[in-house]
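Our platform keeps sequence and structure together, in a single record for each protein. Such a record has a labelled line for the sequence and another for the backbone structure tokens. This encoding replaces a full spatial description with a residue-level series of whole-number codes. Below, we set out a record of this kind in full and without editing:
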Amino acid sequence: MSQAFNEEATRPTPESIAAALGDAASVWATTVAALEEVGATAEWRYYRDGGWLAKATKRSQTIAWARVEPGQLRVSFYFAARFRELLLDEMGIDAAIREQVEAATGRTIALSLELGATSAPEQLLALIGFKLRAK
């Protein structure tokens, strides 16, 4: 899907995020709450090659990147390849995420969640928790 916020002059607001997500608007609130629960924050930044992205950080550690797409929120996590086996052993990660881990090549494992109106937060919570434990 395409990025909902491409214009540099149009910073995402709670109202514009809800409008872009539509029925999936609660996904943003769930994501922000999950981040706040672990002491992390999400800050919107504009990138010429990616539009407006929310960078989730705790202190100086980047936890995830989020972008609003029409009808869904895409949350991406990046892990060093040395965490491959630990990710595959992680109990809270489902088969679709395991397939992304197995298919990843190179020194970085990129995992992407597409969260829509019917998405349960379990995978999001599992990956946030793993990211905070991975050092």
Notes: The CA atoms of residues 22 and 71 lie 6 Å apart. The radius of gyration is 15 Å. The first strand starts at residue 41 and ends at 47. The mean pLDDT is 94.
